[in-house]
Records
---
Amino acid sequence: MFIDIINKYFTDLSDSDLELSKYILENYTAIANMSVNELAENNYTSKSSVIRFCQRIGFSGYTELKNYIKWDASIENNQIKSHSTRDYVTADIRKTLNYIQESNWTDIYEELKVTSKVYIIPTGHTQQSQASELHRLFLLMNIRVEIINNVASTNEFKRILEIAEDNTLFILLSYSGENENLIKLHNELNLRSFTTIAITGMNNNTIASNATYNLYASTTKSPASSEWWIQTSSSFFLLIEAFAFGFLDYSNSL
């Protein structure tokens, strides 16, 4: 996925590169019919800057990037445009299903198979519900798991870092991947070389770019200013269930 490519090169990208990648993600299906000059003009930058951005993330140039996006967005082009909040939900589910079907989580499952314990760190009320569901499924599979509800560098968290074994896994749940407290905790985990799994929305974000592994779910906010509080979340539960049962299938195949 294009978002995986961005997160792979995240630390090497400038602010203007990140703005450009954000624009591409927000206008993904339109990029296939956009010239390099149009893309540059829409982002108040130059043609050469766009080409350098493409090369910085592993493409030979803009043509190769555009062809990749045209292929990657083919399913998006066939979807009906959303006009209601219910349509947002169904569109997010379709997109997340497509991501699940294309994903191979064997590397994560291999780590999960030998982990001594899993800690799940959610960032908000909805994420806590998602964490509870993942916690329930892991317990049924006899995986030692615990939820850390307070997203802050507390004494309890520091103590967990002291007693955690090297093969402990930390799963971080965040819609945006930009929660400041979670970023700080993630930095502490990385300093101690713990394996981290980020579960975030399909956008380039700090948490995903710094995680060992990434899982993505599509989430949409209502464009209506009066409905600022609406953001879809059902796709995250779909992802979590698919991920957990996928581990069960992996374990049964050994």
---
Amino acid sequence: MEDGGDRGTVMRYVIADLEATCWEKGTTPARMEIIEIGAVTLSSAAGDVTSEFGEFVRPVREPILSEFCIRLTGIRQSDVDGAGTFAEVFPRFLEWIGPDPYTLCSWGAYDLGQFRVDCKRQGLSVPAPFERHLNLKQAFAHLEGIKPCGMKGALGRLNIPLEGQHHRAIDDARSIAKIARVVLPRVEAGG
């Protein structure tokens, strides 16, 4: 579990999920570019979702989505063609998060890593609060005494139905938030 700060003073959580360009072969974080940012905020560990953010992002290095990526995510070429670049969308995402303290959460370490890759590529700084990242996949596995599993597996273990389209960032962020509302109170209590 990545943890860069005192969770006792942070009551707000930003649950983020990303979709990125991908290919059947040759997919690496260095090649990938974010094509959708989805996120929800929780006012507290077990609190309700208080706001949502969802935007497509136009890739610039390899602007044409692979057939594999379209099949996996359901994101169409027209969705990203009409979107802003990461350099345009990321500041809007940070503005949506706002200045109040928060802990960034995601299912696994990938999302934070891809934020770092895309920020570096665009000459943007990774916000310091991102370093307070909580890997919910690791936390869930630790608390449940199991090997890390996918989001769908965790939902099934908690008897929470999958809603929306898997591999769409905003839908996955909503699903991860449902898991987070079970996990975060236990994390705050010392697991």
---
Amino acid sequence: MRRLSVLAGAFIVLVAAPARAQEMHAQHQNAGMAAVKPLYENVKGWVLRSAEAMPAEHLGFRPVESVRTWAQLLGHVANANFMFCATAKGERSPATQNYEQVSSREELIRGLRAAFDYCDGAYAMEEAKAMEQVTLFGQTGSKLWVLMFNVAHDMEHYGNLVTYMRMKGITPPSSQR
């Protein structure tokens, strides 16, 4: 009886081991996209919530004359998201306008949402596709590199948004509990 139990246990391990190995291989194969997507989701949420938190009367606010206004900064983020994600997808940007020139709060938020919605597809690509090479700003790198660049760019400008919000007495989304 004991021998039968040992054989049954060994059989289960032998049957399960290839499935587990295949699962681990799949996780490893998607490690890059799995690492960058949560960062993208975080900054996407913070930027959108920031845009919604700032009252419309502050669209023209800028801390000093030499920097973008609140509206221009949000428009720049929307434009850049379309550009980065179009590059990663190997497509022409579907942006319908220069969002840095938009003066309506609702239109800015719509543009940001459209840009992030477009980017969602890029951040859902398979790892093998993400390793394909593209050119951006005269440099060659993987599509994953472009998506990481996009996250870094969004984070950089989220930092600007945080400063603008603090100057207006608004707690930024990443600091809210």
